[in-house]
TrEMBL record:
It comes from the Eukaryota. It holds the Pfam family RAB3GAP2_N. Residues 222-338 form the Rab3-GAP regulatory subunit N-terminal domain. This is Rab3-GAP regulatory subunit N-terminal domain-containing protein. Signal peptide: none annotated. InterPro entries: Rab3GAP2 (IPR026059), RAB3GAP_N (IPR032839), WD40_repeat_dom_sf (IPR036322). PANTHER family: RAB3 GTPASE-ACTIVATING PROTEIN NON-CATALYTIC SUBUNIT, RAB3-GAP REGULATORY DOMAIN.
Amino acid sequence: MARRNHTVELGYIVCDDLSELGAGKEGWLVENPNLLCALDTHSIALANRSTVLVLEWSNSSDADGYRTRIRPTLSPIEAEYISAVEWLVFDDIRVLALGTSCGYLLIYSLGGDLVHKQLVYPGRILKLRVRGTNRDLKEDASSEEVSVVMPGVIARFDGSDIQSMLRRWQETQTQFWDLKLESRHIENSGNFIGRLPYQLWNVSKYGSCADAAITGIMPPPLMEVQDHPRKGEKLTLSPSGTLAAITDSLGRILLLDTQALVVVRLWKGYRDANCLFVEMLVNKEATVSSSSYVEHVKSDYCLCLAIHAPRKGIVEVWQMRTGPRLFTIPCTKGSKMLQPTYRFESSAASPSSYVPLEVFLLNGDSGQLSVLSRSLK
């Protein structure tokens, strides 16, 4: 019986300038704690403490996928550095959001122009999260947001406010076409667009915060101080925010129901693991003849959890909430598991255009990018 192939090769990430980020050294993608990654549909942003490279992957390992380089103006006095990176995608607008160690939110165009700069709160930005709840068929109302996670606080920006700001910025660009190239690249403070409104919550009473997220209700202390030596490290939310997968320092993974505030599942023996939710065609007629085409809708997909266990060299996919392990695949050392950022959808989007959650694997040593197959067949 032929062995099933659960991944599909998409292309390669190739660029001579990747050597600036450490490429060429075995394990460079996963061993540098200051190297940040953010994936979009056809692009990837890689950042160290001072520079961001935006690249597109190609079908050839010899092709150069370099697109642009971003060097933010950072404070040398404060030893400021890039501490978080994420894509913001609104229909035809794609920009890159950066967080800094001094608490600034920076938004850049794909041309490398600074669109917006704003101090969120003094302190290091740990993570930028983009989330929307309109993917959940059980909810009629939609809520799209960008969260800024910091050691003692979490800030929430409404997605519609950011989209309106980007639209206004897009309109102002017609004023600059006749200016010299060098003047167009002068970094501005974003004041001509105005400050973005946001909400700010103090979460310091729960102890030192390693990661956080907004679930739409009064959040439980997901990263509260545990009985020594357990310590929460990373979390990932399901599309609706009703499930959270949390990794801790003892190699455990907790699946938490954020509505009932109970742990519904526990895995042990997964030190340094990373988790991402993924949607797959399970127990569906996923394969059709070569002459026919089926467009799947959301109800065809089942929510699963992909667990990358680098110490074991594997990726496992488990059916939610308490279903079986669907499959296990080997994962080359030096690989990272990634997922494209949430895309802010227009109101005109139809159910038939539903794009499921996917999980990608990037091999830093070879540059190869692959995606987990949606179907188990």
